[in-house]
Every structure is written in C-alpha cells, then in structure tokens.
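Example 3.2
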Amino acid sequence: MNWIEHRALYELYATGSVKINKTIEKSAEIIFLNRSLGLLQQKGNNLIAADGFLRVYETKFKDRYLTYRHFLQTQELLKLQTRFEENDIQILMNINDRMLSGELSELRQQIIDYDESLRGVSLMFFKNEKYLLDKPSLIDALKKMLNVEAFSNEKDQQYMYRLECDEPQRIVLCENLDFLTKPNKPRKHHIELWYAGGKNVAKLHYAKDRDLPIYYSCDWDYDGLFIIYPLVKQKIPNITLLLPNGMPKSISETEHRSLWQNKTKRDELADTGTFNTEELSLIDTLISQDQWIIEESNDLVTMLNLS
C-alpha cells in the first residue's frame, strides 16, 4: 500500500465515504475490501463504508495510519503530493530512529566523506541501486533523515564502508548494510565489518585482510549465493561462508525478487567446491521449499560461534 491508499481508507473510516481516483481504482487492498469482503460499496464516483468496515479498519489499518501520519507531520514530509509506499515510510522511520540513537552517525559521516552516489545509498537502504531513481520526494526525505545535502551521481565508488573496532580478531564482509549500522555487538566481540555494495566486488581486489580470518555474510537466496558469493570468492579465495541461523521466509509471501532458478547453477558451483555438504543441504532445502534467509535476520555472533 502507499500513502494515498492509507489516506483514502482513513477518510472512509472518518467520514463514511471517499471519492474514487486512479490510485483507489488500482488498489489491490481496496479492491479486496470491496469485492471479496463486501465491506465497501460504490455509489457513483464514491466508495461508501458498509457494515463491518469500521471494525476491520480499526483492527488492521488505523494504528499504522496514525503512526505514519504522525511521523510524516513531525518530519514536515506530509504534503498533498506525498505518495510514499508503506515500506518507504517504514525505512525512513527506521533511519530516523537510528540517527537519533547515534547508530548511523559513523555511516552518515562516511557517506559525506566518500561522496556516496545516489545508487549506492539506494542499495544501502532499499537493497536496489535503482530504487531511488526518478523519486525526488523520497530522495529529499532520505537526505533530511540522514542530514546530508546531496548524493553523488557516480554509479560506483571504489571504496568500502568499514565498521572498525579495537583489536580486530576477524573480518566479516556483509552483502547488505544492516550489521554495520548496529556497532555495539560486533565491536564488543572484536569483529571488523566490511560492506562493498552487493555485486560491486571489484574493489575487493585491493582489500587487505591483514592475515585475519575473513567470512562472508549474505542473503541466502539465488543472487546472494549463486551470483555474488562466487564473485567474492574469486577476489578473496580464503573467505569462509557463514552458515545462517535466521528463520527461512517464503519467497512468494515476502514478494522477494531473487527467485531460485533451475539447479544448473547450483550443480556447477557444487562441482567447483564452492559449497560444502552442509551448505548444499541447506540450499537444497531452501530451493525445494521456495524460501530464503534474510541476512539481517541472523545473529552475527552466533554464526561466528562466539556466543
């Protein structure tokens, strides 16, 4: 759902009707409430709340809407043209909370110092380097949350983000940014974290592990295991893949885009010894059940057998 849909449902709740527009016509959620549940009725160019709608709205939508509205208002992001997706609002709220807590202060400074690109920032927070393209309102909101003036237009930067610590004992290269934004636990356990930016692994050619053991943490999905990890392995042959401990999620239910394809790639990598027997067993289970494991759902310390 996007903000326009949320606002329309609240208007239905508050006034009993809402004027139909193009967003409402195409809204899967509103269509479901109308045609499948019979909680809405169309009268001319308006939708009318039917019996049972108020109860369903209060149970499923009201708290979310009020939370989002309060955030958008307090951050001066609530405008007539606001149409952020719900997930976008949640990400902005999360960034704001982490900025207030100081968790992102070090990363923010690196973004400024390295003149990070729009694509790079998009990949960091939205896991898709093209997601922010042609979304000026969302870009402006992200700048506001991070308190930065601009993002570079460069497509790829030749540096890595690092979360350093006192007396590092091991290095973990992360596919995604999440672990680097939570510094307390890795620093407590003397773990240095690296983030190169998904598939942008060419820069790893210049990375020096200083003879420390180095590990790879990633999403256990097609891209993470069959595309990115082999590229990483070419640059750092001695890197060790970390076995995840997070709960598998349904690819279809989470609307994930990295779909398992045929097993040819899996078999090719198995033949080259890229994965060991335990890793292949988990991969086969995930493929057979159409599931994936999100990197940030894992406990990093437990994966490293440090707990």
